[in-house]
Amino acid sequence: MIEEGNLKLAFYSAAACGGCDVAILDINEGLLDLIEAADIEFWPTAMDVKIDDVKEMPDKYIDVTFFNGAIRIEEQEYMAKLLREKSKILIAYGSCSYIGGIPGLANLFNRMEIFRRAYIETASTSNPDGVVPKTQVDIPEGRLELPGFHDDVKTLAQVVEVDYYVPGCPPTAESTLSVVEAMLRGELPPRGSVLAPPKSVCDECPRNPKGEKKRISEIHRIHEVTPDSERCLLELGIPCMGPATRGGCGARCPKANMPCIGCGGPCPDAPEQGAAMLSALASIIERGVKMEDIERQIKDPIGTFYMFSLPSSIINRRVERK
Ligand code: SF4
Ligand code: SF4
């Protein structure tokens, strides 16, 4: 239970790009209500606070923590556990925290492959001794320690219990505002809820054809065509993740002539987002055209169907044969 008086809030970014922090600021004048009703106890992006400040808080001292970003390194896992201990409500805010997000595509590689690429092979890197990060390095002044780098990217819920999920990359100002308002009124839905409408992006899209979708015989990438601004992009052969993606964004990308890329995560009745999209695509292929011919035309199948949800999907990383 959240007690009377000012709410105590915390914000934290794990493996993130910073967009989710900015999304909090996007609620504009809603921030004034928030600041009036809440004290921000911990937000490393915006204030000078230390991990020790959190460690010293009594358990469940923070009312609500907004946790954005996926779990990539040991320190992020430690902070997830610490903030879980100190918070009454823990919200996975944004797609990285909710389903793994774009950092989750790193699950197509392992730790050493990532290090090799980032620290040795890139064209702009000169590293003749092949030095890669280590958790401990002894130097004359003493021992330097770095947090360990996991082999896998994980979602927040794969590390600690999560109370609510706010999808989006980043979440829209409207969805953030509705969470803040529900929180201030004490009207949050049952724990475990995804705080977004239970419908797909197609349900919110003005391009959604009234009747049956026209069948397709080939795939186009968005930069190869200038799509008719009123036609469904999928009907034009452009992979648009709308049928397999939870709405709440108002179909902003299709409205701007760009396909949905799936940041809202899966729809409630089809939790395996990539498989749901493959199934939607297969259902509109022209008779006589083989599915494998269509698949061959999709240049980056995992990046297309699992751009955001790889760590939370059934096969959540590249399978390695030992
Ligand atoms: S969900 Fe999107 S905006 Fe938020 S941290 Fe991840 S990549 Fe950035
Ligand atoms: S597939 Fe894309 S363009 Fe077509 S209705 Fe759904 S969201 Fe809109």
**Which sequence of strands runs across the widest sheet?**
2-1-3-5-9
CATH superfamily of the largest domain: NADH:ubiquinone oxidoreductase-like, 20kDa subunit
- Percent of residues in beta strands: 5-15%
The top level CATH class name of the largest domain: Alpha Beta
Number of helical stretches of at least 4 residues:
12
Q: Any ligands, ions or cofactors bound here, and which? A: iron/sulfur cluster
- Unreliable stretches: none
Average residue-wise pLDDT: 94
Give a nutshell description of this structure:
The protein has 322 residues and is α/β, with parallel strands linked by helices. The protein is built from twelve helices and nine strands.
Topology of this protein?
Elements: E1 7-13, H1 19-25, H2 30-37, E2 38-42, H3 51-55, E3 62-68, E4 71-73, H4 74-86, E5 87-93, H5 95-99, H6 111-121, E6 136-139, E7 142-145, E8 149-154, E9 164-166, H7 173-185, H8 201-204, H9 252-255, H10 273-282, H11 291-297, H12 301-305
Parallel strand pairs: 1-2, 1-3, 3-5, 5-9
Antiparallel strand pairs: 4-8, 6-7
This protein binds iron/sulfur cluster (SF4) (2 copies).
One iron/sulfur cluster is lined by residues 16-17, 19-20, 68-69, 94-96, 101-102, 169-170.
Describe the model:
This protein is an alpha/beta fold. It has 3 domains: 7-102 and 152-185, Rossmann fold, CATH 3.40.50; 112-150, no CATH class; 201-312, no CATH class. It contains 12 helices and 9 strands. The strands form 3 sheets. It has a 5-stranded parallel sheet, with helices on both faces. Strands 4-8 form a two-stranded antiparallel sheet. The termini are far apart. The model has no long low-confidence stretch (mean pLDDT 94).
